[in-house]
Amino acid sequence: MHIVVCIKQVPDSAQIRVHPVTNTIMRQGVPTIINPYDLFSLEEALRLRDQFGGKVTVITMGPKMAIEALKKCISYGADDAILLTDKVFAGSDTLATSFALASTIAKIGETQPVDMVFCGKQTIDGDTAQVGPGIARRLGMQQLTYVAQVETVDLEKREIVAHRRSEGGVQVLQTKLPCLVTMLEGTNTMRFGTMEDLFRAARYEVAEWDHKAAGITATTQCGLKGSPTVVKKVFAPPAKAVKAEMIKTEDKSAREVADALLNSVFAKHPKLEMEIGQ
């Protein structure tokens, strides 16, 4: 079984800076981490590898500093890692990113067919949840998004059964392999790396692919040229100047406090009282 896990090295969300001209995230000098949602996908992939055998290949697109994130994945137990890095990928939106990653997965599949692709449900820097489905669409794979549990995988029948969380509850879905899965948070617990994996990660040489190695000839579909999404402006919303109203509770019963609260709400929203009364 060959599983590819797509991860992303993201800036620590508490210290994100935005370029004043291009409105893209400035990564230089900002502490980075592995996108937390991707770790749930990595752990699920490792569990399936442990159950059925095979290998887990981790890929990411980014600058050379992303090697650190890939080595971290190796320390958790991943078998191989590939960094997709090239100037032509700079400034990619989700459309261009999904194109580059899908091309890379297709190229990997020429050596060993890919049975499953795992992604986190979204990244904490973009929060779009578009790259995973975009990869699946480009590769012609079935996609299972917002998966809370992989119930069964049958390699003989080439089938997978998964629980997908939705607004109305949980959907139990069955589809054919190969497929792409995006995992929800809290679905598992990331393992600790063994001493053997930690030493292997320290020695591991991450493969670096440019657009040619990934089999990409249409460079106009990469980077800013292939990104129709334009960020017009990035700003922090101003803090509201409204002060919280304090309701004194000393020497008052619970009913009196509740009445005071409702009176305060209805005084500011008179229509609400009328709607409730009807």
Automatic annotation (TrEMBL):
Quaternary structure and interacting proteins, as annotated: FixA and FixB form a heterodimer.
Keyword Transferase included in the entry's annotation: no
Its biological purpose: May play a role in a redox process involved in nitrogen fixation.
Gene3D superfamilies, per database record: HUPs
Protein name: Protein FixA
One Pfam family from the record: ETF
Domain Electron transfer flavoprotein alpha/beta-subunit N-terminal span(s) in chain numbering: 22-218
Record key words, sorted: Electron transport, Transport
Assigned protein family: Belongs to the ETF beta-subunit/FixA family.
Record flagged with keyword Repeat: no
PANTHER family found in the cross-reference section: ELECTRON TRANSFER FLAVOPROTEIN BETA-SUBUNIT (PTHR21294), PROTEIN FIXA (PTHR21294:SF17)
Annotated organism of origin: Magnetospirillum sulfuroxidans
